[in-house]
Amino acid sequence: MEIRKIEVPVMADLFARGEKPEYLFWVGCAGAFDDRYKKVVRAFAKILTHLNVSYAVLGKEETCNGDPARRAGNEMLYQMQALQVIETFRMYDVKKIITICPHCFNVFKNEYPDLGGKYEVINYLQFLNRNIEAGKLKIDRASLKNISITYHDPCYLGRANEIYDEPRSILKNLTGNLVEMHRNKSFALCCGAGGAQMFKEAEKGNKEVFIERTEDALKTDAKVIATACPFCMTMLTDGLKYKNREQEIRNLDIAELIAQSIDL
Fold this sequence. Notes:
Layout: H1 11-16, E1 23-26, H2 28-33, H3 35-50, E2 55-56, H4 67-71, H5 75-91, E3 96-99, H6 102-111, E4 120-123, H7 124-133, E5 149-151, H8 165-174, H9 209-218, E6 224-227, H10 230-242, E7 250-253, H11 254-261
Parallel strand pairs: 1-2, 1-3, 3-4, 5-6, 6-7
Helix pairs in contact: 3-11, 7-8, 8-11, 9-10
């Protein structure tokens, strides 16, 4: 589906006009640089515009928040990057942050307060589900009602922050055919890229984690694997390619499924 072009507001431009948005939409490194995940950012930005939400992005002023550095063990680099981001937030008086990456969500919510960065941090699935339940975001269930969907729990949403219900509530609004993997919720298997594993070579073993998790998804016979994390999307897409199933099974982010259902 082609997502129509929209004008995404930039924080510096709004402040120059004397305006202050309610939310900062944190795009994240994957959303800024990964061609596949840019589509997810566009889909969510389209939904925000559709809902007439007061938001802005940092644009070129957004830098890495330091999460990969801390996960890889470089504490000094993490604190340097985090303090730089906190200063940018202070400059724009940021109070509420919406994230699409669970890793960004976790570091802002649980780790930035130790450095003085205290904000209301909202994962986009929480935000979307809240608007669906309030009747502000109306889903056309007919477009996906006969399509079987399985959902992969990202570690930093699930086990780290116990966000299990919102994604499932959204998917049940999208389809009447949500199929759970055998290992789900707190028992879900990692995609294989967390803890900075995305940026290093695989360790010795008989099978890589992303292949094992892809096999979990394939056992459900679902036609769509729904994800909610850029790392998970990369690893499961690679898994489908490894299994030569990428032509028949799609890996889509929940924001993309919503945008598709309301024809944005």
